[in-house]
Amino acid sequence: MRIYLLPISTRRTLLYCQKHQPPSASAASLTSGSTSTTNQRQSWGDYIQTKAALTWASWEKKESGWQKSVVGYGNQLLRKLPYEEWALKSMPPLTKSRQRQLEAFVQEQAQAQGDFEMESGEKGSKRGKVDVDKVEVVYPGGLIKKEQVPRILHKLATEREGHHKKWFWWCLAGMPVTIPIGILPVVPNLPFFYLCYRAWSHHRALSGGKHLSYLVQHASRLLSYQPSPILDEIYSIQRLPLPFTSEPTTGPEAETIRHPDPAKVVKAINGGNTATEKTNGVNMGHVLEQREVEDGEVLLLSQENAKKMVQLLDVPELEVELERAIWQVETAVEKKNKEIGAEVRVDAPSVDDTKKEKEKVKTH
Known about the structure:
By secondary structure, the protein is an alpha/beta fold. It contains 15 helices and eight strands. The protein has helices spanning 23-31, 37-60, 66-80, 83-90, 96-112, 149-158, 161-178, 190-217, 219-222, 229-236, 262-270, 290-295, 303-313, 318-347, 351-363; strands at residues 2-7, 13-18, 135-139, 223-227, 244-245, 278-279, 282-283, 297-298.
């Protein structure tokens, strides 16, 4: 398993977990006609996901009809789901067997390092050697310092926990209300299936966050930090200016990632500055200062460079995640700039106010 930390802006980072299936396991599943009971239990979730994906793909191929309309509106809804939720869903759930395996490995590592304290109920128990590979955390070393990595991981794992718990229960509560819609013979009970999907999605995000939190809790024994020269190269060849806002779109508690060259951003934005020029809906009548870049939010990755990143990393499934995350952050930046622009227009004196002030000066 490998985790990618990919800064989208100086305030937002995308997490993506690439799951590796052992070659022996995949070969066995292809050559053997039977599977164990454990594998059958674990495959139900994947089976349902695969079945739903195939049904959705078949509806997309329809030239017309209600299935095509449902897919069109559904894809718009799915694109608007927070990329942070998709990120946590990329983490495999922390099953009881997986947790026991990790706990055994952590205790084995503690004993090897001279720390003989064990959890209650397991003191003195004999265990065989536990073989668990460390999870690689790949990140751009030029943007993220090594000591920042565990803080960012912990933030991503826990910041939306309350949100997912709340809406998981709300979706469950709403399911019985939508059941009467199934009486209609024309179309399936779409509201019911949507609430089912959202409840599952929130639950998967919670499970992924729990798994990530456990890894961070035992980071020294379970995580391996790997700065990537490939990522550093991608982030260093950005064309400026990228979308920018002088006020962050996140809360003050967000882990800030410094732009590699904020002075370069300031120069690029101020290059053609005039009293009437606007950037993403904001009147840029004043000269931008480096402090505003550092205190605000600057995009660090464009859609064009995201595709290059996917090709160089050879992780094709990452493309849709990056595309969604960049689009959402760009939209948030544009919205914030429009809010700032509205405030500027409200605070700025109108033409009539200016005339009145001049008349007052003349009379005095």
